[in-house]
Design goal:
By secondary structure, the protein is of the alpha+beta class. The protein contains 5 helices and 7 strands; from the N terminus they run αααββαβββαββ. It has a domain of 92 residues: Alpha-Beta Plaits, CATH 3.30.70. A hairpin with a 2-residue loop joins strand 3 and strand 4.
Length: 221
């Protein structure tokens, strides 16, 4: 009987030795209380640290955004994207236009260099009869009678640029006058002076300043 009680005693000692320091829990009841207190403190510290971590994550997490705000933000982003694309296309067009203007300016500059300077076009001046000499052989057609011949002769003599006007021939309504000038005159000026002096319409049929010949004509009316 005594031999069978010994193993039970040994099993009790082995179960009690559950700590690393080899302390027998059955023999030191206060050690178990200290271990429980130490475990409670460790658990409390772990709970505090977990709460701090959770609070930090909650503070770092962005606040919840309503669906309306999200939709407005998405629409604003879409508008910004379209604006950027439009700006890029506009910049491309401006670049193309700038290149075209530069090319045109270069072409104009080259043309200005190669093209000869344009000469100013002066209005064509009617040649004038020279004064002096034997005078101008003036033929007058459709003379309205001898009275009309006298009127045109007097009108020519009264011109300030005329030195003399002598009738050389009158036949078949056609007369010839030798007109000597004191100053140069054009055929148009001679016809105008004769028309103003006679009150009739007189036009130039032919004018040859090189041969000193002039042909005037009375118009009916």
């Amino acid at each position: 009987m005594a031999g069978m009680a010994l193993p039970r005693r040994m099993r009790r000692v082995d179960v009690a030795r559950g700590f690393d320091d080899g302390t027998d829990m059955s023999d030191t009841p206060s050690s178990a209380g200290e271990a429980a207190d130490r475990a409670a403190r460790i658990l409390a510290q772990a709970l505090i640290e977990a709460e701090v971590i959770i609070a930090a994550e909650r503070d770092a997490r962005p606040p919840a955004v309503s669906p309306q705000v999200l939709e407005a933000l998405e629409g604003f982003g879409s508008v910004l994207t379209q604006l950027v694309e439009h700006t890029e296309r506009l910049a491309q067009r401006v670049a193309i236009l700038s290149d075209s203007v530069s090319a045109l300016a270069e072409q104009q500059a080259q043309a200005a260099i190669t093209a000869p300077p344009a000469k100013p076009q002066l209005p064509e001046m009617e040649p004038s009869f020279a004064p002096g000499g034997e005078g101008i052989d003036v033929t007058i057609a459709d003379v309205p009678g001898f009275q009309g011949l006298m009127e045109i002769q007097r009108a020519l003599v009264r011109l300030s640029q005329v030195q003399s006007a002598a009738v050389r021939r009158y036949q078949d309504d056609e007369a010839a006058i030798q007109l000597v000038l004191s100053q140069p005159m054009t055929a148009a000026a001679i016809a105008e002076g004769a028309a103003n002096g006679t009150g009739r319409t007189i036009v130039v049929d032919e004018s040859r300043t090189d041969t000193l010949r002039l042909r005037l004509r009375f118009l009916p009316g």
